[in-house]
Amino acid sequence: MIDQLFALLLLLLIGWFWLDASRARERAVGLAQRACQERGVQLLDQAVELRRRGLRWRRQGLRIRRVYRFEFSEEGIGRRTGYLVLLGLHLVDLSLGLPAASDDA
Residue 35, Cα to own-chain centre: how many angstroms? Predict the structure, then answer.
């Protein structure tokens, strides 16, 4: 009985982790698309790549920290790399490695 309960709990945990990872990836793609659109660059492959994952303690409790990498192009030929960091589903950092946009251009 205990073995079956443990197996069920393990399956539920794996399912939750998979669902959380899917939601985080979808959120990361959306954030990367929006950031590229705002800067006038093209997100390549319409995808992000999970580079690092870890756990962080916050006041709200334990959160999963994920670092995603994505590629974009300024002129449509070359590839540049950007990254974003999610803590849970909240954006913590996003960088395209480009100079700040100027309003007087």
Answer: 12
Token pair recorded at residue 98: 């480009």
C-alpha–C-alpha distance, residues 39 and 41, integer Å: 6
Do 58 and 90 form a contact (C-beta atoms < 8 A)?
no
Over its C-alpha atoms, the chain yields an Rg (Å, rounded) of: 18
The string of pLDDT tens digits covering residues 16-29 is 999 999 999 999 99
Output the pLDDT for position 99. Answer: 65
86: Cβ–Cβ under 8 A, 6 or more apart, which residues? 24, 27, 28, 65, 66, 68, 92
Residue 18 CA to residue 23 CA, distance in Å, equals 9
- Token representation of residue 83: 């990254």
